[in-house]
Fold this sequence. Notes:
Blueprint: H1 2-17, E1 30-43, E2 55-66, E3 71-82, E4 85-97, E5 105-120, E6 127-143, E7 146-161, E8 165-179
Amino acid sequence: MIRLAVVVAFAVCGLLSTSAAAYTVKPGDLLLKPVTGASINVARLNVATKATPPAGMVLGADLDWSFDGNWSLMTSLRPALSPGFVDVNLGVGARYRLLQLDAPLIPWASAQVVTAVGAPLGYGDAHVNVGARVGGGVDYFVMRDVAVGVEVGSEFTALVAPLLAGEASTEVLIGVTFRL
């Protein structure tokens, strides 16, 4: 156990002592981040033939344009696949990166306005949602133009079709960011 603690301590010191000058986001950078993970609908419509699925696998991408270094404008396309149901989620918002740490490990937070259209693959009604997503995560630049990261987010939306109802979901995603 002590050996593991020593290895972890050296790994953390190594990460924090790495020169971060090249491993950062600068004004004008355009970043593409494919993501995958799980989405769990914690508050959902559960009516026969109109039910929202309880969970889904998210496959998507984020596109960020950094206009300030710390601040960026972001868009996201995140389809979620569930048994018998496909949901396509679009979002536009802002991301704030905490670049002052002078390390290749960059925490961030984001907020987006989102809309989603979902449809069952068989019998049932299509769904239309409008709302907001907040999230946070951390990216680690393994190279100057490539970072790996993890994200946790929550989405709060109003289901406007087929019935009016409130819905909420939580996502846990991993992704790889590429500087374009």
